[in-house]
Structure formats: C-alpha cells, structure tokens
Design brief:
It is built from 13 helices and 8 strands. It has helices at about 10-15, 20-40, 45-60, 60-65, 80-85, 110-135, 140-160, 165-185, 205-210, 230-245, 250-255, 280-290, 345, and strands at about 190, 200, 215-225, 260-270, 270-280, 300-310, 315-325, 330.
Amino acid sequence: MADKKEKKGFRRGVYAVVSGVIIAVVLIALTIFAYTTRYTALSPEKTAQAYVDGIVQTGDGYNAYKTTLLSKNGKLKYGDFVRNVYMRPYVNDGDDVKQADFVSTNGSVSEEEQKAIDKVYTTMYEYYVELLSTYGWDNYDAFFTQYFEKLVQVRHDVYGDDYMSMDYMFGVLESNVQTYADSLTGTEEVLAADNKTVISEATEGEYQKRFGKDYKLTTTATEFKELSAEETKAYIAAYKSRITPVAESGEALADKYGVKNYQKEEKFLLVFKKMKDHNERDAMINALKGLDHSEEIDAVGTVTCEVKDESGKVNIKIDVPVVKIGKSWYVDNTNIITTPLYFALNG
C-alpha cells in the first residue's frame, strides 16, 4: 500500500483557490457531525454501527475513536487527549526556536518549502501504513507514540530544524489519514474555478479494484444483547483491570519525556507582561487518569455488526462491546479487535 500511492501534501497555493468552499464545507460537516453524534450515542446499535462503518468505508480507525470510551474523558476532547499525552513531549514552537530559512512566515510557499512539505507528508504516509499494518488502531498508544517520534525525526532530516507545533503534527497526521482513505475509495477529478484546469486527477482506489467500480459496502447492526447485572459487574471488573495500568501511567510518562509544569512571562494587550502558568505535566497525568470510567458505567452489552458488499466478496461479522454512561453508549475500545475490518491490509 505504501508504494502504491503517494500524498503530495497540502499545497497551500492550490488550496487557497478553494479555501472558502472548504471552510464552508467543514463548518457544515462539523454541525452535522455534532448533531448526529449526539443522537447516535443514545442507541447502542447506532453507536456500534457508526464505529464499524467508519473503519470499513475509509479505513479511518483514527476518527473511529470519537465513538469510543477514549472520547469520554471528562471535559477533555479526543483531540486534546492526543495533544496532552502524545504531542506534548515534542512541541517546540516558541519564539526562540528558529525554523529553516526557506519556511515562509507570510503565507506564501516557495518551491523549496513545497518540496519539504511533500517529502515529509510522503515519508510519514509510508510509515503510517507500516504502523497500521503492524499495530492497527486498536493499539492507539503504540501508534501515536511511534508516529510522532518518527515525525520529529523526519522533520529534522528534511527541514534541518527542530521546530515542532501541534498544528503541524495534526496537519501531517490528518493528511495521512485522508490519503489512506483516498487509496481505498479512489478520488474524483478536481477542477479549478475555471472548470477547465485540472488540480487533481481522478484515481482508482483499492476497493474499486477488488469489488468493482460501483462497489457498495454495507454495515448493519443485527443484534444487541445487554448483559445481566451479574455479568455487568464482572465485565466492569475486567475493564478496570485493563484500564488501571494505563490511567496510572501519567507520572512515569511525564518523567520519561521530561514534561513539567512551569511559568513563562508572556505579553497581553500587546504591551503588558505577566507570568502565565503552563501546567503541562498535570495535563498529561490528568488526561490519562480520565480514561478510567469503571465507576461510571451503568450498563454493558454487545452489538453484532455485519459487513457485506454486493459482489459477495465481503461477509464479516463482528461483535462490538458497548457500555452505557448516563444516557450515552460508547464502544469499549479496550476490548475489541478490528483487524478484520481493514480489508486492504488483509489480502
């Protein structure tokens, strides 16, 4: 897969042409996502189906976590969890950190910088597929840990600097996620505003090659079984044993990477200065502590989902463990193996 298709990065000059449309689409998508997610969570069947279908349609195990217990972390959003635990050790974007001379600060992109962007995105995409083949997204800890370690190294090798920001890290990761999705589904031709100039040519995806040009993958939740009170108690105890070592690993992880709380003088209202607290160690520790929901779980069940395609080449059944907290259901990501859902990696 890594050799089949390369991502050419986010070409800022090209994307500026359609940035207004993209922003509008993103805002609409976020509104729809917030609405549908809220009501999907009320149903164990819909929650499990959304989780499985997200992986099946585009291989996106990264965003699939938004329907799991990993996203139920107090007031902490999924993205903030990733920032606090996995990105924090590498952020180095202060005023005293110099970027490579060819990096623009005015929004324009030189040919040299574009080549660097493309090189980083392409190299990291190959590594992304390697990690997906080795660990899958079920082991998000290994995935995030090794991915960002590699990104720091690649950035230094390509740019020759030590700069690293969270926006940059997310930009590369999310590009790789989209590139993998495109490699499965294929892409349509994209034209410029003149409706003549081809910005991006159409591509054939892995699914189209395997299942036909007009393939259709369908995910159906066929059965829901809720555990008895005794079974629920036993399940929660097993969940507790799985999550406790992770939830209590924050201090050791902060020590390993040297993440600390500190104060820094910063400007406000352009001219005034004051000391600002940066509780980065606390943020890392608390993000991991927030993974333990053993005292909050009200009910547990299993949703059986079936995935099929019209050609008959795909016929998979998977049991998805779901837990209820308050009125919402979540997939228990600590107790599921999604390997069968990554068709392109399974042959």
